[in-house]
Amino acid sequence: MKLVFFAALLGLSLGQHDPLTKHNRTSIVHLFEWRWADIAAECERYLAPNGYGGVQISPPNEHIILSEPWRPWWQRYQPIGYSLCSRSGSQAELQDMITRCNNVGVNIYVDAIINHMCGAGGGEGTHSSCGSYFNAGKKEFPTVPYSSWDFNDGKCKTGSGNIENYDDIYQVRDCRLVSLLDLALEKDYVRSKTANYMNTLIDMGVAGFRVDACKHMWPGDMKAVFDRLHNLNTKWFANGSKPFIFQEVIDLGGEAIQSSEYFFLGRVTEFKYGAKLGTVLRRWHGEKLSYLRNWGEGWGFMPNDKAVVFVDNHDNQRGHGAGGAAILTFWDARLYKMAMGLMLAHPYGVTRVMSSFRWDRHFVDGKDQNDWMGPPSFPDGSTKPVPINPDTTCGDGWVCEHRWRQIRNMVIFRNVVNGQPFSNWWDNQSNQIAFGRGNRGFVVINNDDWNMDVTLNTGLSPGTYCDVISGDKDGSRCTGRQIQVGGGGRAHFHISNMAEDPFMAIHAESKL
Ligand code: AAO
C-alpha cells in the first residue's frame, strides 16, 4: 500500500519533467516571435519531417504595446491579461496552430508569465494587444481582473520597490523585477487566475510550459499553482499525462537562490551550459575541447534529468539575462554550428534549439543599443510572415537556425542515437575531440589551428557513411563527404582547420 502511494508521488513529480515528445523526437525549437500561422505551417512542412519534437512559442497572452522604444520584442513579457490575442495572432489562430502541430506529432510549449504584469510605468489606456483597458499606476487590470490587492508591494522592503540585491531572497521574490508589477502568488485568488490561464491552454492542447522568471517566485507558491493544472488533452496525449514544466531560473553560481530549489516542480534551464560551451569554443581562459571529456554533471551542472540546455536564448543572444560575451549566437555562425553540434550529439539534458530574427546590432562601449528591436515588422508594427526561399532558408530577416543543414541534421542525429551511451571518447589534449553514442553515431571536431588526421574507433558497423555536416544522404549517394568505417569500427578522419565547418558526424541512418 505504502509502495503504491510512493510510486504515485514519484509518478506525479516525474510527469512534469518529461517533455512527452512523440515518435522518438528529442529536441525543442524556440520559434521566437513567430506568428501562429507560420508556426502551424512550419510544423507541417518542416518540423515534423525533420524530427523536431516541439516548439516553444512566445507568450500568447494579452500584452502591453509600446511606442518608446517602438514595439520592442520585450513588450510581450509585460502581461495585461490572459486573453489570447498577441503580436503572434488571435485565439483562433493559436488554436489552429496547436491542433495542426499536434496532428503531426509536434508539441507546443507555452512561455507562461505568471510572476508579474506590465511595468509600473506602463501608463493607462488601451495600448494592449487585445485592446483592453488597464491602468498600471493604479495596478488595475480589469480583464483578469486584478486590482492593487493582488500585488506584492506591501511585502517588498526596498526603497525603490524593485529588486536591488540578488543576495536577498526576499527582495528577489517579493520585489519588482525591473519595475514589473509583482503578483502576490501567495493569494488563492492569484493562484486560481494564473492556473486558469494555464488550464485554458492545456485544454486547447499544449504539452507544457516554459515558466518565466521563476527565481522571482517562491517554489511553494508555484507548487500551489501547478497542483491545480489539468492533465493534458487526451485527444493527443495519453490519459493522465502531466504538462511538461521547464522553469527559467538563471543560476551561474554565487547567488542566494539556486536552481535546485525548483527541481521538484519540473526541469530547469541550465544557464551554465551555454556560458561554458561558448568559453570553451572561443578558447577563452585556457579552455580546450579536450576538457569536455566529463561534460555535463562533471562540470558542476545540475542533474541530467533536471536540465534543459541551449547554446543561446532570446535574452542572452542580445546581452539580456546572463552569460555575457561568451555566449555564441548565429552572429558567430561557424563556432555556433560547432557548439550546436556538440550539444545535440551529447546525451546531457533536454535540448532546445534557438530560432532568431536579425536586428541592427549597434555597439557602443560593448553594449548593443538596439537590443530592444522587435521581430521583422510592417510599418504599423505587425509582425511579418516568415517567407521560405527556394533553397529552404528563410527570408525577411528571419534567421531560422533550425533550418541550417548542420543544425537540422544534428537534431536528427540526436533522435537516431537516443538512449545510447556516451562512448569512444578521443582527444589530442587540445581542441580536437571525437565521441560516439554506442553503435549508432559518431562526431569528430577540430577547433585547433592545424589539420586533423586520425584513425578512430567509432563503434559503428562497417560500411560507407555520409557525413551529415557537409551534406546529406541522398538515396544511394552522399551530397557531402563520406566516411569509410572498416572492420572493428575503425575509420579515418581528415578535417582541415580551414574547412567551412571543421567537424563531421555520421550515424546509423546516414549509412549507404
Ligand atoms: C523592460 C525594460 C526595463 C523596464 C521594464 C518594465 O528593459 O528597463 O524596467 O521593461 O518597463 C524582458 C527583457 C527586459 C524587459 C522585460 C519586460 O529582458 O529588458 O524589461 O522583458 O518587458 C533576470 C531574471 C530573468 C529574466 C532576465 C532578463 O531573473 O527571469 O532578468 N528573464 C526573463 C525573460 C526576459 C524577460 C523577463 C524575464 C521578464 O527571459 O525576456 O525580460 O518577464 C543576474 C541574475 C538574473 C537576472 C540577470 C539580469 O544575472 O542572476 O536572475 O535575470 O541578472 O538582470 C552575470 C551573473 C549573472 C547575472 C548577470 C547579469 O552573468 O553571473 O547571474 O551577470 O547581471
Strand order of the largest sheet: 1-2-3-8-9-10-11-12
What's the overall geometry?
globular
User: What is the end-to-end distance?
Assistant: 54 Å
Biggest sheet descriptor: 8 strands, parallel, barrel
Mean pLDDT: 96
Structural class determined from secondary elements: alpha/beta
How many whole angstroms does the radius of gyration measure?
23 Å
> Percent range for helical residues?
10-25%
Ions, cofactors, ligands: which are bound?
Answer: acarbose derived hexasaccharide
Beta-strand residue percentage: 15-25%
What does this structure look like?
With 512 residues, the chain is α/β, with parallel strands linked by helices. The chain is built from nine helices and 24 strands. The longest helix has 17 residues. The N and C termini lie far apart (54 Å). The structure holds acarbose derived hexasaccharide (AAO). Acarbose derived hexasaccharide binds next to loops. It catalyses: Endohydrolysis of (1->4)-alpha-D-glucosidic linkages in polysaccharides containing three or more (1->4)-alpha-linked D-glucose units. Its EC number is 3.2.1.1.
Features:
four-stranded antiparallel beta sheet; binds acarbose derived hexasaccharide; alpha/beta; 9 helices
